[in-house]
């Protein structure tokens, strides 16, 4: 399957994520959209990794070239999980105080 | 002997330092002793130097006595200016006048200034000593640069002393006026020195005068004229004289010091010192003579109508200085120096006498409120009379000989000069005796309180008066001309320093006639003045010409209108328009712009997360497009440039 399909899918996912972040006000949905963007990136990493790994493997069966991208995916997932844990804590605290998860409500912090 | 010369200015300098630094710790008697002692010590050394000069072998014409070099002052490869002192006949004579009369004025001051608080008393004596120190430097300097240092020094000290009572605004303004006017003259002096340096490459007197042939006519003319501008500022000649009458704001002994022994005689000294140059510049000589004559007459007319006892004397000084410049202008350098000397005697006497009167009258200076002081202030009265007779040119008082020598030389030059000179002499006699008669004769016109407290001044004031009176009477003896069966001692004494005297040959019978006329005019003026003012002083307001004279020909007003006010207006424009809206506008504009811009930028910080992210996304898109089309953009840029 050509790499362009993966790229197109990832771009679409990423754009959906961005639009979601931009237009939605619910903090939890925004979080989910961010996850969507991260996953779009993950998809690309895996796809490129597989592509180059496959090319290298055909050349030399013992080569490990090209699996770095897949490792990065794990890192991103770990970081995303950490981010979510912190972010959720913030959201929970926010809900407890103002009984809302509307991010625009927080702009009064500017004063 | 000559190597002791550095002691002369050293003593007043030490006196200045001690009195200046410890003025709060020292007691008044200690301050007085230090101040006067410094001058006395200088005077003793000066007498020794003078005696040494008297017996020194006369140098041949065209050679100059060697200078005693203290240290090298400016030393740049081949260009050297030494800190050198020159002691010759001329400077040793001036040393005697400055330290001798300066000492008497110091002694007088101890009593006159006695009511000042100790701190100001010390400050006063420190200034006085510094003044004398500067003047000594001026006179002793072996080159024009050292002279200039002293020249500026006396300018500074006159500023400090005229504004001694600095809390009074008028006094400070008078001090500023003196300072600024002197600076105008100093510019001329400075330019002359630079011109000399450029053309001759040295400022040492001896070298300049022996290498004078290197200079072209134009150079000499310009240098002498510029020097004269300096002299006119310091010696209060037209048009730079108006500071001198205002200088009366300072304490009276200071006036005496400025007018008699220091400062205003600096210009005469400088020109007499540069006589070699001046004799080669006939055009400048004419200008000097005419300015001197005009000043003499002009100031004398103003003096006639002044009612402030010190102002009369001040204008009289301006007038007498005009005489001296007349003498210099017609080449009678000895006559001018002689008149400086006798004038120093009687003008110091008159000022100190006036101080004694003011002291007795509790700081009343208006002669219309005096009168009849003859019986109360016997010593002051008698000495003052001697001074008046001396300045009026009555034989055999000292002023007669010196004034007559100048008049005779003027006659040899041009009878018109002589005519104006004699008229001025008549005016001098008139206003001096108007002053004398109004102050000392008639009946007392002051308040009852003042009359009750009238008293003769203490010894410290009367003894200097007596000494000066004796000098004023007999001082002319050193210059009795040959036709009056004397031999001019001063002339032969100064012949070493003044090498280019223009001889004036007039018939003996003519000379007797000239003397007779001037004495007769002076005597008539005295009789008229005494007659007119002893009984009925002018209490009514002056009208017509008298009013113009009383207001000093409105010269101050003219200066204000022509120079001072336009300058103030210009300063106003600069301050209000250029400074406030121009420069301040730019500076404040920058600040206001930053302030405004930051207020606008703050609107972007809405706190809305969505808008932030939108900006981020748009920026990324723009960056993406930019990098995507990098080559196109680069080509585009290259096309432009």
From TrEMBL, chain A:
<dbReference type="GO" id="GO:0050136">
    <property type="term" value="F:NADH dehydrogenase (quinone) (non-electrogenic) activity"/>
</dbReference>
<feature type="transmembrane region" description="Helical">
    <location>
        <begin position="30"/>
        <end position="52"/>
    </location>
</feature>
<feature type="transmembrane region" description="Helical">
    <location>
        <begin position="72"/>
        <end position="95"/>
    </location>
</feature>
<comment type="function">
    <text>NDH-1 shuttles electrons from NADH, via FMN and iron-sulfur (Fe-S) centers, to quinones in the respiratory chain. The immediate electron acceptor for the enzyme in this species is believed to be ubiquinone. Couples the redox reaction to proton translocation (for every two electrons transferred, four hydrogen ions are translocated across the cytoplasmic membrane), and thus conserves the redox energy in a proton gradient.</text>
</comment>
<dbReference type="InterPro" id="IPR039428">
    <property type="entry name" value="NUOK/Mnh_C1-like"/>
</dbReference>
<keyword id="KW-0472">Membrane</keyword>
<dbReference type="GO" id="GO:0030964">
    <property type="term" value="C:NADH dehydrogenase complex"/>
</dbReference>
<dbReference type="GO" id="GO:0048038">
    <property type="term" value="F:quinone binding"/>
</dbReference>
<dbReference type="InterPro" id="IPR001133">
    <property type="entry name" value="NADH_UbQ_OxRdtase_chain4L/K"/>
</dbReference>
<dbReference type="Pfam" id="PF00420">
    <property type="entry name" value="Oxidored_q2"/>
</dbReference>
<keyword id="KW-0874">Quinone</keyword>
<protein>
    <recommendedName>
        <fullName>NADH-quinone oxidoreductase subunit K</fullName>
        <ecNumber>7.1.1.-</ecNumber>
    </recommendedName>
</protein>
<keyword id="KW-1278">Translocase</keyword>
<keyword id="KW-0520">NAD</keyword>
<keyword id="KW-0813">Transport</keyword>
<dbReference type="GO" id="GO:0042773">
    <property type="term" value="P:ATP synthesis coupled electron transport"/>
</dbReference>
<keyword id="KW-1003">Cell membrane</keyword>
<feature type="transmembrane region" description="Helical">
    <location>
        <begin position="6"/>
        <end position="23"/>
    </location>
</feature>
<comment type="function">
    <text>NDH-1 shuttles electrons from NADH, via FMN and iron-sulfur (Fe-S) centers, to quinones in the respiratory chain. The immediate electron acceptor for the enzyme in this species is believed to be a menaquinone. Couples the redox reaction to proton translocation (for every two electrons transferred, four hydrogen ions are translocated across the cytoplasmic membrane), and thus conserves the redox energy in a proton gradient.</text>
</comment>
<keyword id="KW-1133">Transmembrane helix</keyword>
<keyword id="KW-0812">Transmembrane</keyword>
<comment type="similarity">
    <text>Belongs to the complex I subunit 4L family.</text>
</comment>
UniProtKB/TrEMBL annotation, chain B:
<feature type="transmembrane region" description="Helical">
    <location>
        <begin position="146"/>
        <end position="166"/>
    </location>
</feature>
<feature type="transmembrane region" description="Helical">
    <location>
        <begin position="512"/>
        <end position="530"/>
    </location>
</feature>
<dbReference type="InterPro" id="IPR018393">
    <property type="entry name" value="NADHpl_OxRdtase_5_subgr"/>
</dbReference>
<dbReference type="GO" id="GO:0042773">
    <property type="term" value="P:ATP synthesis coupled electron transport"/>
</dbReference>
<feature type="transmembrane region" description="Helical">
    <location>
        <begin position="89"/>
        <end position="109"/>
    </location>
</feature>
<feature type="transmembrane region" description="Helical">
    <location>
        <begin position="278"/>
        <end position="300"/>
    </location>
</feature>
<feature type="transmembrane region" description="Helical">
    <location>
        <begin position="340"/>
        <end position="361"/>
    </location>
</feature>
<feature type="transmembrane region" description="Helical">
    <location>
        <begin position="254"/>
        <end position="272"/>
    </location>
</feature>
<feature type="transmembrane region" description="Helical">
    <location>
        <begin position="218"/>
        <end position="242"/>
    </location>
</feature>
<dbReference type="InterPro" id="IPR001516">
    <property type="entry name" value="Proton_antipo_N"/>
</dbReference>
<dbReference type="GO" id="GO:0016020">
    <property type="term" value="C:membrane"/>
</dbReference>
<feature type="transmembrane region" description="Helical">
    <location>
        <begin position="30"/>
        <end position="51"/>
    </location>
</feature>
<dbReference type="InterPro" id="IPR003945">
    <property type="entry name" value="NU5C-like"/>
</dbReference>
<feature type="transmembrane region" description="Helical">
    <location>
        <begin position="465"/>
        <end position="485"/>
    </location>
</feature>
<dbReference type="Pfam" id="PF00361">
    <property type="entry name" value="Proton_antipo_M"/>
</dbReference>
<feature type="transmembrane region" description="Helical">
    <location>
        <begin position="178"/>
        <end position="198"/>
    </location>
</feature>
<feature type="transmembrane region" description="Helical">
    <location>
        <begin position="382"/>
        <end position="401"/>
    </location>
</feature>
<dbReference type="InterPro" id="IPR001750">
    <property type="entry name" value="ND/Mrp_TM"/>
</dbReference>
<protein>
    <submittedName>
        <fullName>NADH dehydrogenase subunit L</fullName>
    </submittedName>
</protein>
<dbReference type="GO" id="GO:0003954">
    <property type="term" value="F:NADH dehydrogenase activity"/>
</dbReference>
<feature type="transmembrane region" description="Helical">
    <location>
        <begin position="608"/>
        <end position="628"/>
    </location>
</feature>
<keyword id="KW-0472">Membrane</keyword>
